[in-house]
Amino acid sequence: MKRAGGPVRNIGRARAAGALAVLAVVTLVTLAGCDLLSSLSSPSFSPVVDDLRDGADLIVAGDFTTVNGASRQGLVRIDHDGRVDPDFAVTSDGYVVTVEPVVRDGRTLVLVGGSFTQINGVARSGIAALDATTGAVVPGFAPVLGPLGANDTQVSAILPVPGRDSVIIGGVFQGAASDPATGALDVSVTSLVEVRWADGGAVATFSPALQPISSGDLFVDSIAPGLDELGAWSVVVVGQFLAANHPTYGAVHAAAALDATGAVRAIAEPTSVETSRLRAVVTDRERGVYRVAGDMLTGAVPIHYAEVYFIDVTTLNDFQPEPGTPFVETSTLTTVLDAARLPGGRLLVAGPESMYALAAAPGGLAAATIVDEFGVPSTTAYLSVGTTTYPNSFVWRVTAASDGYYLAGTFEHLIDPLGGTSGSTLARVDGAGVVDTAFSVAFSGPRANTNPFAFDVVELPPGF
Predict the structure, then answer these.
(1) Residue 281 belongs to what H/E stretch?
(2) What is the pLDDT of residues 318-370, one digit of tens each?
(3) CA–CA distances in Å: residue 23 to residues 1, 107, 256, 290, 426
(4) Does residue 63 contact residue 447 with C-beta atoms inside 8 Å?
(5) In the chain, which end has fewer C-beta atoms inside a 10 angstrom radius, N or C?
(6) Is 15 within a domain?
(7) Are 2 and 150 in contact (CB under 8 A)?
(8) Burial status of residue 443 (CB atoms within 10 A of its CB: 0-12, 13-18, 19 or more)
(9) Which pLDDT score is estimated for 230?
(10) Rounded to 5 degrees, what angle do the CA atoms 319, 320, 322 make?
(11) 75 domain residue, yes or no
């Protein structure tokens, strides 16, 4: 299967912030991010409040076939010590890249997205709702999506919208059915769609105004709820696409804020180029910014992480750093795929095995490191893949948890500066980046990669 370039999680939560008018780059380094849902609610469909606590179960999504010797195809539920939950058993014919816990009519569910055509023997087009306890497919919710060019259909980002009783889906696909029972595709829908919770049918009133780049590709990698800049419901999307043609800045790529109709109302990164691809966006309501990561250019300056707010697309006339905030260019780091915010304004950032050239690290390279509040990577707090039989190792996801941070990806092990060594594919570290050597989960497989791969890891809230 041809992979579309990979998923990124998206979610934001917490308190409402003051209205913001326009995009400014606040800090540059790498991605930040793992929260749960937006603050919207409805009687039948509740967002999950992230109440992390010791001993919580995890759901891990990826491309693997067994976990600790038990058959698990792309999705597994494990306890805090890494033991496989025998009751949550899921099979699919592809891989899973993103997981979102939700509560629907009092029932705990997980929405899963990826590249598959069936899950537990039930036909599903890259997205499904599962019972959080048993993994059984929830009937009724069955969006129908089609492939985009040579890419397999892939759902990379999921944002439940309780106030609209719907779900926003992003990824790589062309065509969505307004009536899943007939399966007739509206091919004008490309890589971003709103679907009804009742049946998964496409919502006609949400018509995203994103356009493909010159290659014909249109990737939506991450979605986050808006900060009410538009005075009403909005959503922020990032990926690789043409968002708008601005009279002053020309083509604007990689990030956009859309209103309830899908119209592009605000833009980010006004000097980006076609090759820019943002991998993740998280809404930080407490601080009133969006945290974005990936590969982007402002002029000739490479940026891997930024904290931004958006500018109205019709009045864009200012693109300046936030006053008093250090403007950091991270030339010492290559692509960063994910990160989590640490106390004191620091970040735990992660990416490919060669993300950070560091002589002190085994092999002279580190796949994760701590970056201080000024954007300077640490030379003493890092994680390296060391000597490994895994080609092209990297850390794809960093998830904040009740007792530290989980790093997921494809690696044989991660090694901290003290010599602590993790197991493969999934590691747990503390806020100083020290590996919890007692936590080890054995993944094997997969079908499509050389080595097992974990795309996402979610710590489940109470009641799941």
Answers:
(1) strand 277-284
(2) 333 333 333 334 556 777 888 788 887 788 888 899 888 899 999 899 999 99
(3) 38, 39, 10, 10, 35
(4) yes
(5) N
(6) no
(7) yes
(8) buried
(9) 67
(10) 130
(11) yes
Pairing of the two strands 127-131 and 377-383: unpaired
On whether the CB atoms of residues 351 and 336 are closer than 8 A, the answer is yes
End-to-end alpha-carbon separation of the chain, Å? 33
Token duo for residue 160: 């439940």
Q: Which two tokens stand for residue 344?
A: 């004191």
Backbone dihedral angles phi then psi of residue 64, each to the nearest 5 degrees: -155, 165
Alpha-carbon span 393 to 352, nearest angstrom: 6
Beta bridge partners of 108: 103
Domain that holds residue 205: 23-459
Work out whether the CA dihedral 387, 390, 392, 395 comes out positive or negative. negative
Where is 443: in which H helix or E strand? strand 443-444
Place of tokens 């990561």: 293
Tokens of 38: 């937006």
Residues 236-254, buried b or exposed e (16+ Cβ, 10 A)? bbbbbbbbbeeeeeebbbb
Asked if 273 and 301 touch (Cβ cutoff 8 Å), the reply is no
406, 381 in Cβ contact below 8 A?
no
- The secondary structure of residue 352, as a DSSP letter, is B
Q: What is the CATH classification number for the domain harbouring 123? A: 2.130.10
The DSSP secondary structure of 70-122, one letter per residue, reads: EE-SSEEEE-TTSPBPTT----BSSEEEEEEEEEETTEEEEEEEEE-SEETTE
Would you give the distance in Å from CA 81 to the centre of its chain?
25
Please give the Cα distance from 3 to 125 (Å, whole number).
Answer: 15
> What are the tens digits of pLDDT across the range 258-278?
889 998 887 765 555 777 888
* Amino acid at residue number 24: A
Kindly report the number of other CB atoms within 10 A of residue 309's CB atom.
21
What is the predicted pLDDT for the residue at 107? 92
**Residue 18 located in a structural domain:** no
Domain count for the chain, please give it: 1
Identify the CA nearest to 229 among candidates 14, 16, 21: 21
12 falls within a domain:
no
Residue 271 C-alpha from the chain's centroid? 24
* Centroid of chain to Cα 460: 16
Q: Chain centroid to CA 373: how far?
A: 23
Q: In what helix (H) or strand (E) does residue 169 lie, and over which residues does it extend? A: strand 166-177
